[in-house]
Design goal:
The chain is of the alpha/beta class. It has two domains: 233 residues, Type I PLP-dependent aspartate aminotransferase-like (Major domain) (Aspartate Aminotransferase, domain 2, 3-Layer(aba) Sandwich); 88 residues, Alpha-Beta Complex (Aspartate Aminotransferase, domain 1). It is 38% helix and 13% strand. It contains twelve helices and eleven strands. The strands form two sheets. A seven-stranded mixed sheet has the order 1-7-6-5-4-2-3, sandwiched between helices. A four-stranded antiparallel sheet has the order 8-9-11-10, with helices on one face. Helix 3 runs antiparallel to helix 9 and helix 4 packs parallel to helix 9. The radius of gyration is 22 Å and the shape is globular. The N and C termini lie far apart (49 Å).
Length: 388
Amino acid sequence: MLRAEALIREASQPLPSDRQSVAVGVTPAYLNQFDEPSGYLDFARFGPVSADVSEVLVRAARTIRSQGHPALAAFEAEQARTVAAGAALLGAAPHEVALVSSTSHGMFAAAHALRGPGTVLVSRSDFPAAVYPWLRAAERGGLGVRELDGPVTADTVRARLDDGVRAVSVCAVDALTGFRTPLAEIKEVIGPRRVLVVDAVQALGAVETDADAADLLACGGQKWLRSGWGAALLLVRDRVAGLLEPGLGGWSGVHDPLGGLAHPRPALPGAVAHTFTNPDGPAVAALGAGLALVHRVGVGRIAARIAEALGSLLDAARSAGAEVAAPGGGGIGRLRLPGADPAAVQGQLAAAGLSTTQRGDWIRLAPHATTPRATAHRLAEALRAVRR
């Protein structure tokens, strides 16, 4: 994390010219952390990292090059800080949070922690990384998978509940539509004896989320947390610990794993019981830096700016003749140009310096708090060029 004097110096510096039109709410010190192209609109895929994260990764590389045991001690300290920051963001106790390698790792851990008999409700339209853990676990004796039609709401869950349902798995924000799943309402419907599992990678750091409702939650740092790959938060609430088994728990999740040959050894308490090895030290340090930056600015401010940027982009697209899909509460929107080949539309956007993702007939827009207002004008001009 940058030193206090560095932050003060940074805050006094002028913004780059392509950042000066960003709305107030996020500080110059925050905006100066980033230098991705102003037309970058693909944070739902990957978020270019901050100066803090870049600095931490460089420092970590030097540490592992030049030090031995002190490097291990330094990374253990970073791990404790990152767990504490993740717990604060999720409203959890530190022992309820562990560090794994990715969102998928966390979701596989959740799927293998819930053994049969019984079923899990999963949306058929969720991003595949939130579906395959349950399918693979079911093939190996885990919960049976019962698919829901999305978007998942309290009503769609209520309609499929029966005594055999032991868990519901959802994405906090849908990766295509930006629909924000009503986690608190769903948890109220399923009650305390069923487990709500949440893939939060499209939500944390970008929108205010009902994380309190999640019993298990996984979120990597490479998207809206802007921390790169290799580390993710795994939340396991104490209130459901008695309903779980350490299905993927390895040597890092047990008491005194090197204390003798009598294995398996008892599982550790808390979320760490569901880890199978130690986390990647440099990646954990980077995630900690990303979380610290979110804490300094505040999720509410970041979310408000993302919503403003997305609204401006969709208004500009509409003015250029595009059909737009109303955002569902997340930081993601969609457009399509009637009569135009979606691939050609995306190609024209790329030629105009706009980075987006094509999903079927739709072009996905996912700006961040650092997206300048002028980008909306560039989007409209590119779409008009396609129509011409």
